[in-house]
Amino acid sequence: CMGQLQQEGWIWTSIWDVDEFISFDDEHQSFGNLSEPGIILKYVKENHNQHNSTKCFMIKRLLVGAKEWIQEKDGNDESGGQQIYGDLDTRRLLTMRFRHQLSLTNKLKQLNGPPKTLLNVQHIDPEKDVFTPHRPSMQICSPMESTPFDIKHYLGSWEIYSYRDDYRKGMDRSYEAWLYRAEQASQYADGFPSTWLLGLVADIGLEKTTRLLEQNGLDPSYDAAHKIAEFRCNGGKLCSTFAKMGYNKKTHL
Known about the structure:
This protein is α+β, with helices and mostly antiparallel strands. Helix content is 27%, strand content 14%. The longest helix is centred in the N-terminal third of the chain and has 13 residues, at 39-51.
């Protein structure tokens, strides 16, 4: 994939999943507002042009849990005031629906998972360098180099988590694993990025925004209670650990 992008002349390439979203971290909010289209890439280009050295950003991940931020159809802007989005159902949008994440002082920071990357594909050899999505190049991706970003990794509701048929079902991706992570990542409420939606509406208008996003996510009425038994832990060390903690008898219902 990166070799193809390289041949086509692409430069900055993000390597993270569809349930992960990049933003400036808490210490660097002043670097840019997510309501401005392309603000992340703008910062990257300016930083690269200024120093001509950074070829790969290794970006820490933060686990966002399943605790609901909004229950109604209308979302809240970052100042806490009510923001009406017409017919757009913001409950379908992960960044609007969930904002509670793993506490910054939580000892279980490993739940955040390894970092993800944003790198310049013109500076790698796809035949030799590619190592892992978390660190594609050992040469240019240094974990010691700090970045002003973080990536929010959205656990999502039980319905979202169990919707995909995953080969890890009943093991790493189990009901107990979801419930444990959901409980841990529920204390710290981040003020993250409803601003991206405000910026999109301002840029292309509410009508086009609604049309683009109307099929995003799951219908809020979708229920996956019947999938709990299917996803229950079915063996392995992790399942034994969850059983000792009593998660094999818990439900979120």
